[in-house]
Design goal:
The chain has 259 residues and is an alpha+beta fold. It is 26% helix and 42% strand. The protein has six helices and twelve strands. It has a twelve-stranded mixed β-sheet. The chain starts with a helix and ends with a helix.
Length: 259
């Protein structure tokens, strides 16, 4: 489950970083040109052992800002208690004007900050995306164009990843995305899109939450002993400091962005 959490979390962060920087990502056009909207979606992860985890997702977009809230709905993973998961629910807030994003883990009442100007800009300069139109399909109530999308970093061709994306023909909104690796298949599916004013308060950090030293320090808190968490606050985690699931999740991060 922790590996699935890292996968969803990393995808959320990358969407924020990419969306703020360039028009190669459909979310970029959405943030720059779209009116206020609220998107309700569902993420389903099917692991190689057959375990299925389902997460609900709300995406709020307004005036160059985006917030994504994720909560665990259900899982068939054995010996897993969702109520004790230190990860869910969590939120990601990004702001084009300040070029910053914030990862918020509500159970820990903490957040971490990421500079998108440095991260997103560096990724954008190195990022290559190849899109192939596969045809047209209807997804829910949306008429879509279906694409096979392959992406990689010019400096690290081995980071190549592949996904299938269904984009609304009307406004280019990605209403379905499928990604898969050797461990799991993840499907993002939009269930509803509502246009209308989005409260500015949604893009503010919760009062009383503490800032972590880094994204990894925030995430690893509660996944390893207290003394090891302290090390993570001081330095980047090494293979000896993290558990196997978290390391596998970081491998996924390297595969996606080569870092």
């Amino acid at each position: 489950m922790k590996r699935t959490a890292v996968f969803i979390l990393v995808v959320g962060l990358l969407v924020c970083a990419f969306a703020q920087q360039n028009n190669y990502n459909p979310w970029a056009k959405l943030l720059k040109n779209a009116p206020d909207m609220t998107i309700t979606a569902r993420n389903t992860s099917t692991q190689k052992d057959g375990a299925v985890s389902v997460l609900s997702q709300k995406v709020y977009i307004s005036k160059g800002k985006m917030r994504s809230d994720l909560s665990l709905i259900s899982t068939t993973e054995k010996n897993y208690d969702p109520a004790k998961d230190p990860m869910f629910p969590y939120s990601v807030i990004s702001d084009a004007a300040s070029a910053k994003a914030y990862m918020i883990i509500h159970s820990k009442k903490g957040y971490a900050e990421m500079n998108l100007k440095d991260t997103g800009g560096e990724l954008a300069a190195d990022y290559v995306e190849e899109r192939k139109l596969l045809g047209e399909e209807k997804v829910g109530k949306w008429d879509c164009k279906k694409y096979n999308v392959k992406s990689y970093l010019k400096s690290s061709p081995q980071t190549r990843s592949e996904r299938t994306v269904w984009e609304s023909k009307k406004d280019g909104i990605p209403v379905k995305v499928e990604m898969q690796d050797a461990q799991a298949k993840v499907v993002f599916l939009v269930e509803d899109i509502r246009f209308g004013a989005v409260s500015a308060s949604l893009f503010e950090l919760p009062a009383g939450y503490k800032k972590a030293a880094s994204f990894m320090a925030l995430f690893m808190e509660g996944l390893m002993p207290a003394e090891e968490t302290q090390k993570t606050n001081e330095t980047e985690p090494s293979g000896d400091d993290t558990d196997k699931d978290a390391l596998e999740g970081m491998d996924m991060l390297k595969k996606l962005i080569g870092k």
